[in-house]
Amino acid sequence: NAGVTQTPKFRVLKTGQSMTLLCAQDMNHEYMYWYRQDPGMGLRLIHYSVGEGTTAKGEVPDGYNVSRLKKQNFLLGLESAAPSQTSVYFCASRVALRNSPLHFGNGTRLTVT
Amino acid sequence: AQKVTQAQTEISVVEKEDVTLDCVYETRDTTYYLFWYKQPPSGELVFLIRRNSFDEQNEISGRYSWNFQKSTSSFNFTITASQVVDSAVYFCALSEGEAGGTSYGKLTFGQGTILTVHP
Predict the structure, then answer these.
(1) What is the average per-residue pLDDT within B101-119?
(2) Cα dihedral across residues A87, A63, A6, B107: positive or negative
(3) Residue B103 has what pLDDT?
(4) A99 vs B52: CB contact, 8 Å cut-off?
């Protein structure tokens, strides 16, 4: 049971570099989400997707882009990393049934120096 | 806009003590859902419970119990006879109803409460 898999687990970037975080789920879930977790702020929604080929902005979308070309994958891109993007990033997915719980990946710890 | 507040940033207890984690929420919707998640030191997020706004019955699951009170907009979580393995960050979260199909289950999280249970 892989569930939701995030790669990489850790990454260190220099300011201005770009990278892509990959989220893959094998549960055939329609909805997928990217959150960031910062101390004292809980988890905040960056972007989400309700189906293949669709994406939408969450609470803190600036500086990030996403794509959902395949139903099972949801990519989060940082085009020009900034120290303020140092965070732990969580991907989650769920079925479209009304308010079913989110299934989370194990997180990616990103440090931007 | 919806909001979730967990006023307790950190709680420290000794094993076997009972502990209650507070959660207060704000929403304009009449249909909404409340969740609790646990994040142990290993970092993953584990779903504990979901409660909808029409069901105010308290729930008990082993040593865990939840008290939902719409009158005070609270959804508190109690651990009875705490154990060291309960040490974790606990998050309360709110999702507005999907009757109109616009919520898409987006969760608004509280700031989290760090619970440390000492042996």
Answers:
(1) 86
(2) positive
(3) 63
(4) yes
